[in-house]
Fold this sequence. Notes:
The complex is a heterodimer of chains A (113) and B (116). Chain A contains no helices and 11 strands. With 113 residues, chain A is an all-beta fold. Chain B is mostly beta strands and 116 residues long. Chain B is globular.
Amino acid sequence: AQSVTQLGSHVSVSEGALVLLRCNYSSSVPPYLFWYVQYPNQGLQLLLKYTTGATLVKGINGFEAEFKKSETSFHLTKPSAHMSDAAEYFCAVRGGSQGNLIFGKGTKLSVKP
Amino acid sequence: ETGVTQTPRHLVMGMTNKKSLKCEQHLGHNAMYWYKQSAKKPLELMFVYSLEERVENNSVPSRFSPECPNSSHLFLHLHTLQPEDSALYLCASSQVNGGRGNNEQFFGPGTRLTVL
Lengths: 113, 116
């Protein structure tokens, strides 16, 4: 069975600082991994995804994530935080063949001026 | 704009009311999903429709009744809800090709439901 663990329900960084949001997964099949972002009162928007190939994946808004099979991790990073990055971030792994995703509990990112 | 729309965006209803949530996708996908997002729990998958057939129902109470008349439309019919059903209800769609697809899902903006 697939599962996702996001370490830290809240992360706070200063503007311009490194953003690091942690995600570990468990999957019985080769994983497809996703990061989504949710701004207040909105739906989820795809930031980036890993399916196969290059393990360092670049997404929108300057975010990237690295798939590390040996560590079963898919951490999300951004070199320099911007105030507009304040949102909730969800890591997800492909579930079954019906197309469902298994989501982590989310990490709320705050950016201080 | 993700290509998935939901109406209404906000809904307040009493416990004895009957209402419906609507979702429409303009992406040509063949699978649609309902999720519940509440403050106390992570995203919960409620229903999955693949090729217009319900393929998953995660022990959702019968006061929630989904309907998928075609591959572009999905409804969630609500009746005799409880205050704990207050949440953000999200609709999503994806293109599923057996086990070969990467399952990327596109989400609508959600309906904020308040049950009084």
